Amino acid sequence: MSDWYETLFRGVLFPLYESGLRRRHTVRYLREYERNQWLPPERIAAIQWEKLQKLLAHCWNEVPYYRRRWSEAGIEPGDIRTLEDFARLPLLTKQDIRQNYEDIHARSLRGQMLYKSTSGSTGEPLRLGYTRESFERRIAVMWRGYGWAGSRMGRRTLYLWGAPVDGPDDLHRVKDRIYHRVFGRKVLNTYLMSDGNMAAYADEIDRYRPRVIVGYVNPVVRLAQWLLEHGRKVHRPLAILGAAEALHDFQREIIEEAFGCKAYNTYGCREFMLVASECERQDGLHVNADHLVVEVADRKPALDGSEIGEVVVTDLHNYGMPFVRYANGDTAVPGPATPCACGRGLPRLARVVGRTLDSIRAPDGRVVPGEFFPFVFNDIPGVLRFRVHQRQLDRLDISLVTDAAYDAASERRCREQIGRVFGERMTIAIERVDELPLGPSGKARVTVSEIE
Length: 452
Fold this sequence. Notes:
Layout: H1 3-21, H2 26-36, H3 41-62, H4 64-72, H5 83-86, H6 94-99, E1 113-118, E2 126-131, H7 132-148, E3 157-161, H8 170-183, E4 185-189, H9 198-208, E5 212-216, H10 217-229, E6 239-243, H11 249-259, E7 262-269, E8 273-278, E9 285-287, E10 292-301, E11 307-315, E12 326-334, E13 348-355, E14 360-361, E15 367-368, H12 372-377, E16 383-392, E17 395-402, H13 408-422, E18 427-432, E19 447-449
Parallel strand pairs: 3-4, 3-5, 5-6, 6-7, 16-19, 17-18
Antiparallel strand pairs: 1-2, 7-8, 8-9, 9-13, 10-11, 11-12, 12-13, 14-15, 16-17
Helix pairs in contact: 2-7, 3-4, 10-11
């Protein structure tokens, strides 16, 4: 699809579909967010603060859970005069939501809610409620953030995404085909991806010739590795966007070498959709601060001298089931205070490290972020993919998918580098496997800890 179709889609087809057929306000919200991004940081902060004050007053009046929790902490909305005051409010956890599910709903909006579920890294689903306005705004924010990397609406895009294996019925299949064709996109199911059918995915890229590829990070990396291993060249897109998992630098290098284009990082979660994303400068991820409040709390020193903290998110527009200071289990490194050279006034995260559970504990009590392991295995000859599983404090079970370059020297180097960080008390058990299956969400967790 050419530039003229992108213009037609954005100016005519998308507004007709969203505003006319679906009677949604997504287009209006998108215009609002696109204007906001160019405002100076202090003006964006003022917009965020105004929205936050309204949300806190609503929660106090309408949501029994927050009124009870904040009263127990001796805090009322009038006491919140700064973001430092806001940070005194109790965190909201998944356990809090499960134990107080009904009381987290706003009384006056109970009949106006939409719902979806998270799969959860523990396998225990969490049902999430949100309002229609919240959903429409999330779609608008997604289009804004994806657009920074070139994934504009109407632009020919291929998605390497998870989809139900059994698929929809015939009627829904026809509707999906029409929907995706109008939106200029094609979806390939990564749940079915294996080393044996990589050529089919490469063939489909050549056949479809997308201008942009959007995909789960691990499947995109696996395909990129296969392309490099087999010397296969495919149609070169303008950009590749990684989603659903943190994109490490070593993975970005593999993707860019295989596809011959820039790879961009995005950060989101099912509770809020897109939280932050890279712009064309690729100097950190711009936070959607006019839509969310994102904190990096409880910061601790990282191996590279930066600070890693827990990601805490507040949705400023979900009045039906408000998430206020929700700890989603991710960790991140805050970005610089100076504005990005792109000119956008939105603040930045330096990088998203990953799940809190991805951190591995050393026997002496130190916490080593999961990002340590990609740096190790990236330099080990023959290691294609890996997974680190910690079931007990003094043992690491490491599964490796390798090729012919992996030998005794490679394994010795693995043990030396990991042992240097974790100490002699850590048992390192290495197993070579043919495949590392994806989790139920279609994501591949490279580090898994069962240590509380």
